[in-house]
Design a protein that fits this description.
The complex is a heterodimer of chains A (437) and B (115). With 437 residues, chain A is α/β, with parallel strands linked by helices. Chain A contains 15 helices and twelve strands. The N and C termini of chain B lie far apart (60 Å). Classes of the chains: A alpha/beta (437), B mainly alpha (115). At the A-B interface, helix 1, helix 3 and strand 8 of A face helix 1 and helix 2 of B.
Chain lengths: 437, 115
């Protein structure tokens, strides 16, 4: 009876959900975070529901399977706008965003009350290498530190520290593509020496990110500047949410998200800026690194380039913006801290421009050359710049490296705006339905 | 008698606590090997994370301990100082001067620089 009571109690709490993000999956996260019944967690160990959001490309199936099997029992899986793998018997597919929170709550309470079976494990339950009973003491191999105890070799790969040449053990691992602090879809092979990043090699580039449809329309015909600037501010606020969440400032991150959701020309940034100054975000030691050189800043473009002092913004060439007295805002530092100041300054500027443009009814005039929140879009869309991490992050401490990753918007632009479902054809190219697992 | 009653109560409380933990867990299998691996967002580690690395604040810690010990010598000295006067003062001055050379040396070596 005690157990039933505990189960009932557990089923009433907010639902711990771990999101595995597929293509365009991060858009729904911003909706879910503000739902009071849902608690998005950063590790599958704390979750009871695995939410697969969007289409997972075939080259990331193996990673998704591993995350799936890391949830503690009992757990269940929900697929949002993606085809569940055929061998997952009780996986539910949801396509409507409005009913998703309710579906998550229902699935969780059914699971807790024992009315729903736990999801089956996919991977075989065996260690990475056979080890049991091997060696003189059953430790998995020869020698005191040799062999593979618990299926994995000991850290014996001696490398020289890049700070002072001390030869100590380094730790090599592959992180991502479903790691919360990375852009969705990115994975990297990293070697750590203590807390220092020794090498960084980006292995899978992040998914292309979708922009608001207004940026696509602006390339075909003039659009109201108020509309395009609000969309720009919203994009930056969503990025700020991720940065603040990583910094552990949950309250501040949620207020950034709330501001993004209710954004209008009457919104102001004053409250959030005051909140950030008081919370000590700009005094964090971790945001003092990740300085971009001029060449690197030019490669990534957009707000990151302006944070490094490059005075480049395609809006300067637009007659509509010139009428509003637009001039680009820039910082000089080029480091993580300067980039977050730049994001705040650009949100503020966008809100200011939107107010002015709405009053005077100004539209854009330049077609084919528009400044997106990710960077300039002339003949080509801004491309993926995640290879920049390989040269920027070695030598940084782990916290500084993650803060740098969060502050840089490296994912390229998708060819379709937000809310467009990937077509059947492109889905087939990216890896079918997952039946090949 | 009271102690015995207390012991019984403690055992009962402990037993009840363990029972509440054990009951929901009794049908659950051991965590699978996939669950026992560290969470790396779907990635895998090459080796165990039990690696030898340099604690960067190590030299600063040693220096702190050395000067804490020096403070310990000053307590008995304070008693002797009342008796001996200026002679004890000069002896302590020499002792501190020798230790200060150590600080200057450590400073030059960059011990106080946080890495």
């Amino acid at each position: 009876m005690a157990v039933n009571w505990l189960r009932t109690l557990a089923s009433r709490r907010s639902v711990p959900v771990f999101p595995v993000l597929g293509m365009q999956g991060d858009e729904l996260l911003q909706q879910l975070v503000l739902s009071p019944d849902i608690e998005l967690v950063d590790s599958p160990r704390h979750a009871s529901v695995l939410l697969v959001a969007g289409e997972i490309p075939a080259d990331r199936f193996e990673f998704a399977r591993r995350v799936h099997d890391q949830l503690p029992s009992p757990f269940t899986t929900l697929w949002f706008r993606g085809e569940p793998w055929s061998h997952l018997e009780n996986a539910t597919r949801i396509d409507d965003l409005d009913i998703l929170p309710t579906a998550l709550v229902t699935a969780y309470s059914e699971l807790m009350e024992g009315r729903r079976e736990s999801s089956p494990r996919i991977l075989p339950d065996k260690p990475p290498n056979p080890w049991e009973g091997e060696g003189d003491f059953g430790q998995g191999g020869e020698g005191m530190m040799g062999g593979v105890p618990y299926g994995r070799p000991m850290a014996m790969n001696m490398e020289n520290d890049i700070r002072d040449g001390l030869t100590l053990d380094s730790l090599t691992f592959r992180l991502g593509p479903f790691f919360f602090a990375f852009p969705p879809g990115m994975s990297a092979e990293i070697t750590l020496q203590g807390d220092l990043v020794q090498t960084w090699q980006t292995q899978l580039v992040p998914y292309p990110q979708s922009l608001d449809p207004v940026f696509f329309t602006a390339r075909e015909r003039p659009v109201p500047i108020a509309e395009i600037e609000l969309a720009r501010a919203r994009h930056h606020l969503h990025r700020l949410y991720r940065g603040l969440h990583l910094a552990g400032l949950e309250g501040a991150s949620l207020s950034a998200l709330r501001l993004a959701q209710n954004l209008s020309t009457t919104s102001t940034l004053d409250g959030l800026r005051r909140y950030l100054s008081r919370s000590g975000f700009f005094r964090l030691a971790a945001i003092k690194g990740g300085e971009l050189g001029p060449e690197q800043a030019r490669r990534i473009g957009g707000p990151a380039a302006r944070a490094a002092g490059l005075d480049e913004d395609l809006r300067s060439g637009d007659a509509g913006y010139r009428r509003l007295g637009f001039s680009p805002v820039c910082q000089t530092g080029g480091d993580t801290c300067a980039r977050w100041w730049q994001v705040l300054a650009e949100i503020d500027q966008s809100l200011h421009l939107a107010r002015q443009a709405e009053r005077d009814d100004v539209t854009t005039s330049e077609l084919g050359r528009i400044e997106t929140p990710r960077g300039p879009w002339c003949a080509k869309r801004p491309e993926d710049a995640s290879a920049l991490f390989d040269e920027l992050l070695p030598g940084l401490e782990w916290g500084d490296a993650l803060a740098t990753v969060a502050s840089l918007d490296v994912a390229g632009l998708a060819d379709q705006p937000v809310g467009t479902r990937p077509s059947g054809e492109s889905r087939a190219i990216r890896g079918g339905t997952g039946n090949d697992v | 008698m009271e102690l015995f009653a207390f012991l019984i109560i403690m055992i009962m409380v402990l037993g009840a606590g363990l029972l509440v933990q054990w009951l929901p867990m009794r049908h659950q299998p051991r965590p699978s090997w996939a669950q026992r691996a560290p969470f790396l967002g779907g990635g895998t580690p090459d080796s165990h994370a039990w690696s030898r690395y340099h604690i960067r604040y190590y030299s600063m810690t040693l220096l702190l301990i050395a000067f804490e010990m020096e403070m310990m010598f000053m307590y008995p000295w304070a008693v002797v100082f009342v008796e001996k006067g200026m002679k004890a003062m000069m002896e302590m001055g020499m002792f501190l001067a020798i230790l200060s050379v150590g600080i200057v040396y450590a400073w030059r070596e960059g011990v106080f620089k946080w890495q």
